Amino acid sequence: MSQPNITYNQNIITHAKARGADLSTEEIDTLNATLRSVSFVNDAGQIAFTLGNGRIGDLDAALSLYSEGMGRTSTPSTSTTQLPAGANATQRAIETNRAAREGSAALKRQQAEEIVRVYGSPWATSGNMTHAAVILNNHPELAERLRAEAGDRRHE
């Protein structure tokens, strides 16, 4: 199996637009480098991608997995706080930032859940401390449950 020398930028941009995301140039470059590092030519001569835990997938599967949480989406604010009609710019800015933080926190929790789905619990498997740190920082409830299931007492 050899590694192809391909640039996936256009595929990345198309995939991002299809899910309503706007990727920065840095995110496109990072994702392209990631895809290149996990791509290979399989025995049938087709380009395939490693997806973790021995799984192999096509470009769409790899883009879905590795682009999770990247890009700004144009989703409407989920804020339930109603500002008075005469709210000043500071009040609007505070509310906008609060809504953005809430969305970011939800995304980080999803990323932690995706790490567990793809690689399994870092406390029950090889002990990948990077994965453990991401889960612990972004989804403490999930980390607590996984540590308890694995019988890990290092952080208590």
Give a written overview of the molecule.
This protein has six helices and five strands. The protein is mainly α and 156 residues long. It folds into two domains: 73 residues, no CATH class; 63 residues, no CATH class. Strand 2 and strand 3 form a beta hairpin. The chain is flat.
Question: Could you give a short description of this structure?
Answer:
This protein is mainly alpha-helical and 156 residues long. It has helices spanning 9-18, 25-38, 59-66, 89-119, 129-138, 140-150; strands at 21-22, 39-41, 47-52, 55-57, 72-73.
The rough form would be described as: flat
State the low-pLDDT regions, or none: none
Largest sheet: 3 strands, antiparallel
What count of structural domains?
Answer: 2
Summed over residues and divided by their number, the pLDDT gives a mean of 80
Helix content: 40-55%
Q: Termini distance?
A: 45 Å
Could you tell me the radius of gyration in angstroms? 19 Å
Q: Helix-strand pattern, N to C?
A: HEHEEEHEHHH
**Count of β-strands:** 5
Write out the strand line-up for the largest beta sheet, numbering strands in chain order: 2-3-4
Secondary structure category: mainly alpha
Residue fraction in strands: 5-15%
Q: What is the helix tally?
A: 6
